[in-house]
């Protein structure tokens, strides 16, 4: 028997509890609201083993009157007399029922008698889903995910927003994005409350405001209205569009105030994530002199404190912010307000959580660790990196007193990855944030097949993990993956068969290891034909997984061709090869679009598909690809 998360203590005793279709539920110390719906939750939990021929089962639910259990913890006893769950609080009672649900899913003829004692390492265990890089899930998809998260004992969810909330008066920003409306956020918030999930509003308020600042009048609020040089790396390049708001422009703060007034009423949470990450253009244009005078860290902190003051004092929210910029200036961490929460993110297996968590822990300021599902850019995942990244975050977060663990799921560069590729990260992150000690060596494939994919054949879990091992097995084809490599339209970085970007130096990339990646994807496709999933969306899971594998194969074909013909970009390939590759990619777009619409809204699909069409134009037009003028040749002034 496998559970996810695996409890701290579980002892199976002799006997089997026969379960009838009638329940005799008693509640002690539960609120009227929870007590009113708990019978439905309990019946759903034991439904797999219910038998009309058996007597009504007794279920006793109570809150620990002696207050000896850890917060959100519970004890569970299944005996011949029935089921007893004692929770430290109502959330603990709910989590006890979720454990019963996972036990029942694997039981035969009744529930095995046992005792369980359990509680979490982290008070806050969350998932953040990126809905601003093109994919905005349908409400049906969100409901399905919230039910899965609840069973995994996740208790915080954030939808990362840049331009995908329907702000009244700002229609030009979101009108083509199929955004979340205020009404939909309130519905989702209600579902989350039923599942003991805190739905935290998440809106960037400094960097990553490209989708706003490309429009008027917001462009004039930007730090770099007409673009800027990124010159902090070895090879500077010109970014033609504004990215961040200008931290000294009062109109930017007025905009954030207006956004808060329209966003925050749609959420019952007392917490608000204000973003603040990756302010690449800070100090490049409008604040160049000020940053030279006061220091970039000080200018950043001053703006952070302005937005914090607005959110905390005017709107009464506990504020979270991404800590990447401030961690470059550790001497300023002590100046943070005591009630702000630093979100320490990092997505590689070697991310310095040890160093960064120590800085935050010693400051005495509350903080989360924020690893990733690592599905972004990878299309089919990065299995070993994901598991190590999440283990390290849990270990160093707990060691240094982090109050939370937020598992991020990004969609950079078109959100090409299928949803199912994020499931291993969702499950393992939930497990190690609940109890690292009892879940560090969790059999992730088996847990996925049992509790996520419901695959009686036991093949889908391993297929998903196998697909995510491609970057390792292809001799580090790319730091992220072949999905990202496919989007490198000019081959400036592959001249010596080593992939070189200003921030990466990885290789070698060879015809042989690209061929290995293609073969692994074919093996994944073949494995999926043996699946026997008991899910209503089983056919969709197989289809989208196969589409993801096919996309990786297309990437190998594109990049093998560039290496074999020794050309700098797709448009310089031979005419026959360009025609062959264009036909393969063009045939992919329709099934990709159909799969997209089965789980997500239409807004954003055009932008995502546009990345394929950009490659098609290069293959079909045979026009030399020209970089933006002087992108690399002109030194930064």
Topology:
Elements: E1 9-17, E2 23-28, H1 32-46, E3 57-63, E4 74-79, E5 82-87, H2 90-106, E6 111-118, E7 124-130, H3 139-151, E8 156-161, H4 171-174, H5 182-194, E9 198-203, H6 210-213, E10 228-230, E11 237-239, H7 250-263, E12 271-273, H8 288-294, H9 296-314, E13 318-322, E14 341-345, H10 353-363, E15 367-370, H11 383-399, E16 404-409, H12 423-434, H13 436-439, H14 444-451, H15 460-467, H16 470-473, H17 482-486, E17 499-501, E18 504-506, H18 511-528, H19 538-565, H20 575-599, H21 605-621
Parallel strand pairs: 2-3, 3-5, 7-8, 7-16, 8-9, 12-13, 13-14, 14-15, 15-16
Antiparallel strand pairs: 1-6, 4-5, 4-6, 10-11, 17-18
Tag the structure with descriptive keywords.
single chain, 637 residues, alpha/beta, Chitobiase, domain 2, TIM Barrel, 8-stranded parallel beta sheet, 6-stranded mixed beta sheet, 41% helix, 15% strand, disordered C terminus
Describe this structure in words.
The protein has 637 residues and is an alpha/beta fold. The protein folds into three domains: 9-118, Chitobiase, domain 2, CATH 3.30.379.10; 124-442, TIM Barrel (Alpha-Beta Barrel), CATH 3.20.20.80; 464-488 and 503-621, no CATH class. Helix content is 41%, strand content 15%. The chain has helices at residues 32-46, 90-106, 139-151, 171-174, 182-194, 210-213, 250-263, 288-294, 296-314, 353-363, 383-399, 423-434, 436-439, 444-451, 460-467, 470-473, 482-486, 511-528, 538-565, 575-599, 605-621; strands at 9-17, 23-28, 57-63, 74-79, 82-87, 111-118, 124-130, 156-161, 198-203, 228-230, 237-239, 271-273, 318-322, 341-345, 367-370, 404-409, 499-501, 504-506. α8 (288-294) packs across α9 (296-314) and α11 (383-399) packs parallel to α12 (423-434).
């Amino acid at each position: 028997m496998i559970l996810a998360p695996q409890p701290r203590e579980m002892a199976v005793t002799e006997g089997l509890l026969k379960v009838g279709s009638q329940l005799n539920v008693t509640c002690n110390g539960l609120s009227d609201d929870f007590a009113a719906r708990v019978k439905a939750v309990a019946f759903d939990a034991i439904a797999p083993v219910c038998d009309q021929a058996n007597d009504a089962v007794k279920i006793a639910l109570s809150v620990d009157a002696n207050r000896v259990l850890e917060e959100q913890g519970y004890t569970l006893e299944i005996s011949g007399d029935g089921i007893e769950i004692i929770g430290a609080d109502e959330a603990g009672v709910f989590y006890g029922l979720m454990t019963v649900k996972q036990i029942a899913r694997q039981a035969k003829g009744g529930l095995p008698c046992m005792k369980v004692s359990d509680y979490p390492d982290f008070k806050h265990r969350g998932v953040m889903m990126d809905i601003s890089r093109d994919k905005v899930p349908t409400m049906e998809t969100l409901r399905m995910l919230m039910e899965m998260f609840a069973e995994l004992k996740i208790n915080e969810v954030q939808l990362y927003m840049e331009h995908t909330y329907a702000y009244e008066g700002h229609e030009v920003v979101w009108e083509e994005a199929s955004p979340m409306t205020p009404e939909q956020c309130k519905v989702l918030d209600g579902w989350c409350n039923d599942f003991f999930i805190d739905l935290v509003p998440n809106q960037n308020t400094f960097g990553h405001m490209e989708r706003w600042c490309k429009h008027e009048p917001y462009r004039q609020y930007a730090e770099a209205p007409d673009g800027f040089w990124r010159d902090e790396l070895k090879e500077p390049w010109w970014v033609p569009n504004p990215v961040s708001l200008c931290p000294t422009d009062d109109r930017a703060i007025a905009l954030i105030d207006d956004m808060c007034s329209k966003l925050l009423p749609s959420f019952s949470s007392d917490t608000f994530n204000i973003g603040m990450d990756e302010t690449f253009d800070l100090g490049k244009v409008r604040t160049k002199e000020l940053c030279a005078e006061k220091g970039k860290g000080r200018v950043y902190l001053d703006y952070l404190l302005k937005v914090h003051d607005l959110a905390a004092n005017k709107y009464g929210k506990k504020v979270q912010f991404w800590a990447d910029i401030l961690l470059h200036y550790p001497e300023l961490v002590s100046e943070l307000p005591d009630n702000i929460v630093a979100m320490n993110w990092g997505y590689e297996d070697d991310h310095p959580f040890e160093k960064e968590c120590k800085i935050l822990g010693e400051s005495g300021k509350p903080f989360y660790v924020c690893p990733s599902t690592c599905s972004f850019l990878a299309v089919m995942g990065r299995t070993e990196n994901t598991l190590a990244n999440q283990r390290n975050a849990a270990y160093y977060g707990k060691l240094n007193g982090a109050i939370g663990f937020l598992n991020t799921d990004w969609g950079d560069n078109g959100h090409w990855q299928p949803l199912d590729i994020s499931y291993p990260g969702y499950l393992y992150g939930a497990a190690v944030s609940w109890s690292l000690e009892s879940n560090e060596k969790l059999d992730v494939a088996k847990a996925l097949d049992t509790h996520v994919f419901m695959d009686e054949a036991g093949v889908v879990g391993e297929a998903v993990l196998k697909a995510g091992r491609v970057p390792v097995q292809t001799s580090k084809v790319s730091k992220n993956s072949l999905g990202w490599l496919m989007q490198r339209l000019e081959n400036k970085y592959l001249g010596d068969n080593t992939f070189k970007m200003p921030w990466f130096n990885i290789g070698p990339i060879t015809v042989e290891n690209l061929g290995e990646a293609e073969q692994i994807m074919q093996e994944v496709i073949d494995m999926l034909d043996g699946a026997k999933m008991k899910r209503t969306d089983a056919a969709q899971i197989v289809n989208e997984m196969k589409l993801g594998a096919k996309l990786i194969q297309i990437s190998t074909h594109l990049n093998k061709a560039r290496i074999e013909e020794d050309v700098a970009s797709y448009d310089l390939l031979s005419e026959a090869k360009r025609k062959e590759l264009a036909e393969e990619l063009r045939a992919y777009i329709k099934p990709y679009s159909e799969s997209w619409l089965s789980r997500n809204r239409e807004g954003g699909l055009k932008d995502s598909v546009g990345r394929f069409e950009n490659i098609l134009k290069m293959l079909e037009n045979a026009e030399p690809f020209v970089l933006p003028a002087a992108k690399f040749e002109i030194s930064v002034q």
